[in-house]
Amino acid sequence: MTVTTTPLHTSVLPEVVVEALAVRPGGVYVDCTLGAAGHAARVLDASAPDGRLLGLDADNMALDAARDRLSGYGDRAVLVHTNFRRLREAAQQHGFVPADGVLFDLGLSSMQLDVWDRGFSFRRDEPLDMRFDPTQGPTAADLLAELSEDDLARLIWEYGEEPAGRRIARAVAAARGEIQTTGRLAELVTRASHRPRGRTHPATRTFQALRIAVNDELGALRDGLEAAVEILAPGGRLAVISFHSLEDRIVKHFIRDRSLDCVCPPKQPICTCDTVPTLRPLGRRAARAGLDETTDNPRSRSARLRFAEKI
């Protein structure tokens, strides 16, 4: 059964994802970043009549939207509120091991940016939260109030690759206790960066860095990728969509490292590592959105899809 509703978020590379996962009728799949369930609905359609999908999301509001969109698929769709770093436990608990395909669609959805007052966007003045799960951990405002100037500069550079990170950190440190909203932070970052507004807002990299830190996104990604390989069946597919270089670099290196049959030092004459590859990379390079998709959905311009098959 195909279910259609008006989506709050447009999923990127939808046809390519179904192809990359090699979705088949009766297959078992996991969507680790369910969002508004655009990819999940495509996978359920392609795996009809009896394919199953486990959908995970750390954001309860996203899960509610997905639950409404997927209601017509009945018990073929199992939705769980959890971070994908706990993928292994969720898949085991709900009977999705082994899986035929695991998908990660990283980053923010349009709902989180444009609809919900969660502090992810500098386009509106909102409380500076940035947590995917508002019940867990410190907020972005908490981090700004607690981190030293050096630690904040390091965070902005490492997670945002922001050249003006030191100046921004100095300005934030000087305004401690005054930064509680996105508007105030964006104003301060814009002034400290000495960068005129162009196609990319001067606060973009700083907001990215804070969001990644608040949600430990890179640590969760590493944990999730490891778990995905563990639960995949031989021949099962791993597909990951990333939107910035930090994520893409982790995914690229993960797939490369898991495809090696030897990790001994290059000058060592005989292999002694007994390494067994677990993944076979598919595609010579990351898949990108075409012109039609980027015209209809400008946010798809930065999307990169990498995929591999479990050996």
Ordered list of secondary-structure elements with their pairings:
Layout: H1 14-20, E1 28-31, H2 38-46, E2 52-57, H3 60-69, E3 77-81, H4 87-93, E4 99-105, H5 110-115, H6 140-146, H7 149-160, H8 165-174, H9 182-193, H10 204-215, H11 217-231, E5 232-242, H12 245-258, E6 279-287, H13 291-296, E7 304-310
Parallel strand pairs: 1-2, 1-4, 2-3, 4-5
Antiparallel strand pairs: 5-7, 6-7
Helix pairs in contact: 1-2, 4-11, 7-8, 7-10, 8-9, 11-12
What characteristics describe this protein?
disordered N terminus; Rossmann fold; alpha/beta; seven-stranded mixed β-sheet; single chain; DNA polymerase, domain 1
Span of the ends, CA to CA: 32 Å
**Count of β-strands:** 7
Query: Would you identify the CATH architecture of the largest domain?
Result: 3-Layer(aba) Sandwich
Uncertain regions spanning at least 5 consecutive residues: 1-7
Query: Order of SSEs, N→C?
Result: HEHEHEHEHHHHHHHEHEHE
For the largest beta-sheet, the strand count, sense and barrel status come to: 7 strands, mixed
Supply the CATH class of the largest domain. Alpha Beta
> What proportion strand?
15-25%
The percent range for helix content is 40-55%
Q: Mean pLDDT score, rounded?
A: 92
Q: What class would the helix/strand composition place it in?
A: alpha/beta
Alpha-carbon Rg, integer: 20 Å
